[in-house]
Design brief:
The chain has 778 residues and is mostly beta strands. Helices cover 1% and strands 53% of the residues. It is built from 1 helix and 65 strands.
């Protein structure tokens, strides 16, 4: 009805026989729900009376069900990897959606496919049991199959094509397309015995023994050894024992691998018998569910049971000179004492030593033999780790298989690795000079920069023939490393230079190496000046003239006096540099080039120039070439200044002690800076104002010390006269009343050609002190 029509033709039977035909009904496009199947039968008969056509129609109500959706549950297929040619079980789960009835049976066809979906092998084709999980999942477990080795060319991933047919309530559901997943197929790996590698072939009765042999692993990738399922067997008709294997990491690498068994006890009643050996190994790639196996018969080799010598490690010790301590990189020995505890002589065998550090050594030492009931000691040569400091544990064991041994009494030695002693020493003097007659101490300090302990040092001390109140002018002292030692001397009672020499004549020994410890330089020298007192340079500044200066002229401004308080030639002082600062009346720095001319400005002693000048910014910088103030001397230097022709106005010149630079000129203090101080203790040596004036009276008349306190100093009135002339000096009140007058004779102070100064002490003509206030000077 709803799905189109189909016709089937068939040769009929006759005479009452029933015909049965199969109809394949297309269901594509049918709507879900109720529908009607219409069967129309058209038959042609040939009775005796002629052809007869018969028509019949049957209407069958049907229910159209939704086709169930099938899919493999994610991560449900196991395993992921298997070996070819080895049986394995596969499990997976199928999710079923929209299945109206129950699943009666399942037929599984599982194909191994290549990348182009060609079938390489059919792994399974049969009805399969299943379990229903929940309401929509079918679980299939332990389906036995095998991947033919001929089907895979190499290891790798292969697709699994799964054709699934579900029978449910008389219906058969076949999902199209089929379901798929993937499987990693491994090429088989073989493990074979390396002939002749089994050992030992003789064992002792009543002892425990471990066997060792080599196997060859094919392929290119490591395989895991199943140490629980792999066993080694030794025995005969009257005795049998098995043991597992000791395999680091439980992995076998491609190529040769050495396997060692656990200890196997050999009964005493097997003395004189031969034992057969065999092994079963189970191995495979991690994750493969069908591991491989190998049965080894060792080519029929047998192991003889004999009465063997019995040895025991008695002691392992560090043979370094200062055991257990050694220096990093130091060569030393580890001794192993081993005893033969039986009445049978022990033949040649090997010992093996391992450590938990990075020291270098040959891990195996051959023991040539141990007489019955005797002991021997063998040595391992070791070089201690270079970049390691701390403890390193060394363990010695018998390395040769089949040696009959008792558990060791002591087979471990602990070595403490230290950094070697490295000495550094200093000789410290109290200062660069000492005061005559005073006691002073020289400090000796030897420091060990390493870790190894050392002996004391012996120092030879020489005063170079000068009596400094010590034991002698040449003596020795024992100095403990790590402890500061003071040697006390007494300075001579006169100014001089003293020289002290210190020489290490016995270097400390490194306890670990028993060798002299390295030390930085074995000789030290101390040179000291002996002076009467602390040396200093005292400076004073004094104006040479008034503060009047004329543009375009040169004038002696001030005198600098330097006093060297030292009393020894070692305290001669060299003047290096003097800086004057120039500022305006308001204190703001002024360009010195606007006031002074560099070429005509300098320091003079008498008429000899001793310092050249440079002018920049607000500074006049005076550099002295080689001017020395001898100890105990006083030097006076005059600042001669050339005034710029364009200079005008008022300015200040300032000098502070920090602007004077000096140093010692000779001896052990040579080049050391000298602190300059003023006689008053004030850091400011000079701060004076100057005024640029013309040559006549009216252009030059100024008042200094204004305002003034007559109790401290008088007021100064300065001016220039172009020629000698009589003058009258008067002081008036603001209202014009005469307070004080003074006549100044021609050619005398106040009336002389050039600069003149008149002082007023604040008294009137009657000699009385005037009141505080403002007055006019004329």
């Amino acid at each position: 009805s709803g799905g189109g029509s189909v016709k089937v033709f068939f040769p009929p039977h006759a005479n009452g026989q029933v015909d049965t035909i199969s109809l394949s009904l297309p269901t594509t496009g049918l709507a879900i729900g109720n529908d009607t199947l219409i069967l129309a039968l058209e038959s042609s008969y040939e009775p005796a009376g002629g052809p007869l056509m018969v028509y019949d129609t049957l209407r069958v109500p049907v229910e159209v069900l939704a086709e169930p959706a099938l899919s493999i549950v994610d991560n449900a297929l196991a395993p992921d990897s298997v070996y070819a040619a080895e049986p394995f079980d596969i499990s997976f789960a199928v999710a079923v959606d929209q299945l109206a009835g129950t699943v009666d049976s399942t037929r599984i066809v599982l194909h191994l496919l290549n990348a182009s979906d060609s079938i390489l092998a059919t792994l399974y084709d049969d009805l399969t049991d299943f379990a229903v999980v929940g309401v929509d999942t079918l679980q299939y477990r332990l389906i036995d199959m095998v991947v033919p080795e001929s089907a895979v060319a190499m290891s790798g991933w292969y697709r699994l094509g799964l054709d699934l047919a579900l029978a449910s309530d008389g219906y058969l559901f076949v999902p199209t397309p089929g379901l798929d997943d993937s499987l990693f197929v491994l090429e088989p790996v073989s493990v074979t015995y390396d002939a002749g590698s089994l050992g030992p072939l003789q064992v002792s009765s009543g002892a425990e023994v471990a066997f060792e042999f080599a196997v060859m692993v094919s392929g290119t990738v490591p395989v895991a050894l199943d140490t629980l399922a792999s066993r080694f067997r030794v025995g005969n008709d009257g005795f049998s024992a098995t043991a597992g294997f000791v395999v680091p990491g439980a992995m076998l690498d491609p190529g040769v691998n050495v396997l060692t068994t656990d200890l196997i006890a050999i009964p005493t009643d097997q003395l004189g018998n031969d034992l057969t050996v065999s092994a079963e190994l189970r191995f495979g790639a991690p994750g493969a569910v069908n591991p491989l196996s190998a049965i080894l018969d060792f080519g029929g080799q047998v192991v003889g049971v004999e009465e063997l010598a019995e040895v025991q490690i008695l002691e392992v010790s560090n043979e370094a000179p200062n055991a257990p301590r050694v220096n990093a990189g130091q060569a030393f020995q580890i001794a192993c004492k081993i005893a033969n505890m039986s009445a049978t002589e022990m033949g040649t065998f090997e010992l093996q030593m391992v450590s938990d550090g990075s020291s270098e050594f040959d891990p195996r030492v051959t023991v040539d033999g141990v007489p019955a009931g005797d002991t021997v000691t063998v040595f391992f040569d070791v070089v201690a780790a270079v970049e390691y400091s701390g403890s390193e544990i060394f363990r010695v064991d018998v390395a040769t298989l089949g040696v009959n041994q008792l558990p060791p009494i002591d087979n471990i030695a602990v070595v403490t690795i230290q950094y070697a002693a490295l000495l550094s020493w200093v000789v410290l003097s109290p200062a660069e000079f000492v005061t005559v007659g005073d006691d002073f101490g020289i400090l000796l300090d030897i420091t060990n920069l390493g870790e190894a302990e050392v002996t004391d040092a012996v120092i030879r001390i020489s005063t170079n023939g000068m009596d400094l109140g010590a034991k002698d002018t040449l003596f020795t002292e024992t100095i403990e490393v790590g402890a500061t030692r003071a040697i006390v001397f007494t300075a001579p009672t006169f100014d001089t230079i003293i020289t002290l020499d210190f020489v290490v004549i016995q270097r400390p020994f490194d306890f670990n190496s028993q060798l002299p410890a390295p030390i930085s330089d074995t000789a030290r020298r101390v040179v000291l000046a002996v002076t009467s007192e602390d040396v200093g340079l005292v400076a004073e500044a004094e104006l040479r003239s008034s503060g009047l200066v004329s543009p375009g002229t040169s004038k002696d401004i001030l005198d600098l006096t330097f006093i060297n308080e030292g009393r020894s030639s070692v305290t001669d002082i060299r003047l290096q540099e003097i800086n004057f600062r120039v500022s305006g009346i308001d204190g703001v720095p002024l360009s010195a080039r606007d006031v002074f001319v560099s070429g005509g400005t300098g320091l003079y002693v008498d008429d000899q120039r001793v310092a050249r000048s440079t002018i920049g910014g607000d500074r006049i910088r005076l550099l002295l070439d080689d001017y020395v103030v001898a100890a105990g001397d006083t030097a006076v230097l005059t600042l001669k200044a050339a005034i710029d022709p364009e200079a005008a106005g008022n300015f200040y010149v300032q000098l502070i002690t920090n602007d004077i630079h000096a140093c010692f000129a000779s001896g052990p203090l040579l080049g050391r800076a000298v602190q300059v101080a003023s006689a008053s203790g004030d850091s400011t040596l000079l701060r004076s104002s100057f005024t640029t004036v013309g040559a006549g009276l009216s252009e030059s008349f100024i008042v200094r010390n204004n305002p003034f306190n007559p109790v401290e100093s008088p007021a100064e009135f300065r001016y220039l006269l172009s020629r000698a002339a009589a003058a009258v000096f008067r002081v008036l009140t603001l209202s014009g009343e005469l307070v004080y007058s003074r006549s100044l004779a021609e050619g005398e102070e106040g009336g002389a050609a050039g600069e003149n100064v008149v002082f007023w002490d604040g008294r009137n003509d009657d000699g009385d002190m005037v009141l505080d206030g403002v007055y006019v000077a004329v």
